[in-house]
Amino acid sequence: MPGVYLDPNAQSVWHVTSSRMPRIVDHEQRREEILEQCFSLFASQGYAALSMRGIARSLGVSTGALYYYFTSKEAIFEAMFRRLATRNVQAVLAELPEDATPQDRIVNLGRFLMSEADALEQAIAVALEYRRQQTGPEADAVLRGVLTVYRETIAEQMGLTSGREATVALSLLLGMLVHRRLDPDAIDIGAHLIGLSALLEL
User: What domains does the chain contain, in order, with CATH numbers?
Assistant: First the structure.
């Protein structure tokens, strides 16, 4: 009969619309789809304005279904940003040859920043809005974890061995993206990367 049934391993759900045609839902894929859609919601509506009920309504799912995948709005935000950071890192490293020179690494990083600058600027805006709304150790840990992923990638891309240098590089790149958002015509990403390389004596 029609209904919803959990499989014995709780890895999928059978949505049965008739006695003959069960539909198996891939939980991991559905979770990824939710996170993919949530970024635009946080970017357009703001962290504070969204609730679990509002997110569910915007995604066209029930509130119960959303809670099945995420315990809270904060959990969605954390998973969304960690996913974004991981995807960006994979995109950068995928273009890096094994025998890349320091100059190759700078060019590769510059290529990524120029192609993804708008999305990265939007991500910074969403993160800053989250910081205005959320304070305390848990919020600190979420943002620190995401920044660590980016800092480690920048260190690898630029061949940096010092954690301090990697932190400086990340700070300068974040500042460049914020500056570009405020005054797009003032920023030449390629030129800034050349300047950063010289500053770090690469």
Answer: 1-70 (1.10.10.60), 73-202 (1.10.357)
